[in-house]
Write a structure and sequence with these properties.
Blueprint lengths: L8 H49 L5 H13 L8 H10 E7 L5 H14 L1 E15 L2 E13 L2 H6 L8 H7 L3 E13 L2 E9 L1 H9 L2 H8 L17
Parallel strand pairs: 1-5
Antiparallel strand pairs: 2-3, 3-4, 4-5
Amino acid sequence: MEPRLKTNPRRLQQCRVNQQKYRAQAMAATERLEAQVKQLTLETARLEGRLQSIRTAVPPPSYGQRLATEYFSAFRFGSAVHSEAQAAYLRQALSPHFCFQGRGGLAMFLDHWRRYTTFFDAFYMACDDMDVVRARDTELVTCTGRLSLRITEVTMEHVFPHLLGNVGMVAKLLGQGIELPLVVRFAVEPDGVATLDKDIGFAAGFVALLGSAEETALVLDTAGIDGKVNISLTPPF
């Protein structure tokens, strides 16, 4: 029979002390976690209250703001012949007496963007800021943003044909992307968008691209773009 090992009393006492110490540490850690959970719960409730206050304080978008936002969403990639989103927007958003650029209606609007989409590549239009002024039953919504385009051989042929004999300028422009400042103004009445006007900063865009006011003047002097930034040449369709 093997002899029984005797446990050192001092070691037993030390084990008991260590166990009490570990229990105390575990209890303290648990209490700290419970306190943190309570604090996080209070902070979450406070933030939810602030969020609700913000939601209450910020009014929902107005009718005019919604129509302007939907316009940029529907036409951000230009005009598409079979776009359901664009067709739905035109049916629902435009007033029966809609006027585009102060001199035309829906047909002119569609032709305008069709020319841009046909003669330029990589069309992308975005709104960066929106301002609303209310005057009786009309909302005047002004959107500032940008129009991005890429210059192609079709662009040179139909928009800048006067440059085709200038080999150096054609080489500078062909294949280049250009970003143009854009301002779109909507007059929105209870029955929809009554007028839509826009300004496209071709001069600013070409100065940024070419780095020269003189070359910009050469590009735009007799370009196929009128004073209302409509592409005035007949498209091939």
